[in-house]
Amino acid sequence: MFGEGNIYGQTSVSLDTKDRIILPVFTYAEPKDELLVINKEDYLYVCKEEKIENIVNNLEQKYIYSNLDEKKQIELELLKIYRAILKKVEVDKQRRLNLGGIDILDKKILCIGAKDSLILETKIRN
């Protein structure tokens, strides 16, 4: 399962003709893992959907007990999270991640393990 163990390591991967990358072994990715691809301006961030759900749930819980100014700040943070999500993808049988629909400028991508997530160092067209 993606991120089941700590994800540490780094390697270069290439986009194939269908805009897919093969996920490195150190991600522990398995077929049917559902992942989110998030735009972090300088890189793409890949994580399990549950990680974002937990962040959103915590913000929503804080929202309930917040004053008006804090509520506005939380609303902005939630909006920022939702806008940054580029797509939800499922790992295929060959442990590939389909990045189709994201306008990636580089065909070579540096994959960096980041504890329970994956950083894809690449440039995208906004």
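the 2nd protein, sequnce then structure:
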Amino acid sequence: MKLHTVKVIEWYDYPVVFIASNESGNQKFLCVFYKEEKNSIHYIVSPLSSTELIKLMFNYLDLRTHFLTKLPFLYECILKDDENSFFEIKRIKNISLDILPAENIFIGTLPKIEDYEIKVQNKKLANNDKYSVSEDLMMDIA
């Protein structure tokens, strides 16, 4: 499966945490750095629902817990210096829990909510409108 980067959440010489999407744009993925080699950077990747993204962004869910709930459906992507805009992911078999982020690492305070367009049942909400986190809530990355 090929993915492309939609939104970089944390950057340090390269993307550390970012959201990716499949080619058709109908599935989002969370990608988190876990290893750097001479000419490549390795990420652990998991499918990501809109509800999970909101929980991560608002500190209701830490990164490790998110990945643990996705076992055994975790993937790896390796970005090389010569990569184009799309990159491949491969399912990880026999995953070592050592590659998962440490406990209690939250990403919720990194980006601002204004960076996102929030829709409920195709109705756009103003940034100050109240809403509840539910499966009806869809989030499109700007």
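Helices lie at 50-57, 63-70. Residues 111-142 have pLDDT under 50 and may be disordered.
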